[in-house]
TrEMBL record:
One Gene Ontology CC term in the entry: plasma membrane
PROSITE patterns, A to Z: ATPASE_GAMMA
Assembly notes: F-type ATPases have 2 components, CF(1) - the catalytic core - and CF(0) - the membrane proton channel. CF(1) has five subunits: alpha(3), beta(3), gamma(1), delta(1), epsilon(1). CF(0) has three main subunits: a, b and c.
This protein's UniProt keywords: ATP synthesis, Cell membrane, CF(1), Hydrogen ion transport, Ion transport, Membrane, Transport
One Gene Ontology term from the biological process aspect of the record: proton motive force-driven plasma membrane ATP synthesis
Residue ranges that the Swiss-Prot or TrEMBL entry lists as coiled coil: none
Recorded family membership: Belongs to the ATPase gamma chain family.
Subcellular localization(s) per the UniProt record: Cell membrane; Membrane
Organism: Usitatibacter rugosus
Job of this protein: Produces ATP from ADP in the presence of a proton gradient across the membrane. The gamma chain is believed to be important in regulating ATPase activity and the flow of protons through the CF(0) complex.
Recorded topology in the membrane: Peripheral membrane protein
Protein known as: ATP synthase gamma chain
GO molecular function, one term: ATP binding
Length: 291
């Protein structure tokens, strides 16, 4: 059995660790509420612009925007991978990166090559380790990201789509379900997937037509640029809310485990101390009997 001093040292060390995890849990809980509020505020705008863009995809305008054109002859794919910059958030990033790996394997079986944009330090580090084709990246976005920081890295993929270098663009991120559940998902950004229209109850009409002012090109260019910005920012907001929720749960589990370890070590310490006292008493009694 370990000595009493060694056990006391272990107890003190675990207590210090519990203080850190408890503080991180409280900080994550505070950030989580703010992140969830930003995410929920962005959802209605993102849903509405998805519906409008989906209707436009089935319209017959005089100008057909490149974002709405299916490029079936191109097998090359672009993927935006959204992760956190920091760890200590459970399996959040692991699940996303596992989904990215599976998606890349499926595309490779179809003969497609993939180019990546890493959003977040964990994604960038992982893609570098597996020697993936990373064409752009952005890290250090913080808890309140701004869209301006995303424009440059994402524009690389959008320009590649416009120029015909890739045939589709996907985003992989973690969707926030609730505090205890976050789900990694893959969404197609470009071209606009046709199944979005089927999910919209207001798309019962088969033929959509619009009048454009000042002209179709100007309106569609602005609208579809906003569409991409809204979807990418929403994916980032969802990922941040998921990150803070996962970190709060992970730190709470760590604090609970530390408390359990402290209880076990305290029991061992008390047993060790009691054994030492019993031994001393036995020596005293034995010495008195000998005299």
């Amino acid at each position: 059995m370990a000595g009493s001093r060694e056990i006391r040292t272990k107890i003190k060390s675990v207590q210090n660790t519990r203080k850190i995890t408890k503080a991180m849990e409280m900080v994550a809980a505070s950030k989580m509420r703010k992140a969830q509020e930003r995410m929920r505020q962005a959802r209605p705008y993102g849903d509405k612009i998805r519906n409008i863009a989906a209707h436009l995809a089935h319209a017959n305008p005089e100008y057909r925007h490149p974002f709405l054109v299916q490029k079936g002859d191109r097998k090359d794919i672009g993927v935006l991978v959204v992760t956190s910059d920091k760890g200590l958030c459970g399996a959040l990033n692991t699940n996303v990166l596992r989904l990215v790996t599976q998606k890349a394997k499926d595309l490779a079986e179809q003969g497609a090559t993939v180019q990546y944009t890493a959003i977040g330090n964990k994604a960038f580090g992982f893609l570098q380790r597996v020697r993936a084709n990373v064409v752009s990246h952005v890290v250090g976005l913080g808890d309140r990201p701004h869209l301006d920081a995303l424009v440059g890295p994402v524009k690389v993929q959008i320009d590649a789509y416009r120029e015909g270098k890739i045939g589709a663009l996907y985003v992989v991120y973690t969707r926030f379900i609730n505090t205890m559940k976050q789900e990694p998902v893959v969404e197609q950004l470009l071209p606009l997937p046709a199944e979005r229209l089927a999910k919209d109850a207001r798309a019962a009409r088969q033929n959509w037509d619009y009048m454009y002012e000042p002209d179709a090109k100007t309106v569609l260019d602005q609208l579809l640029r906003r569409y991409l910005e809204a979807l990418i920012f929403q994916a980032l907001a969802e990922n941040i809310a998921s990150e803070q929720s996962a970190r709060m749960v992970a730190m709470k589990s760590a604090s609970d485990n530390a408390s359990s370890v402290i209880d076990d070590l305290t029991l061992v310490y008390n047993k060790s101390r009691q054994a030492a006292i019993t031994k001393e008493l036995s020596e005293i009694v034995g010495g008195a009997a000998a005299v």
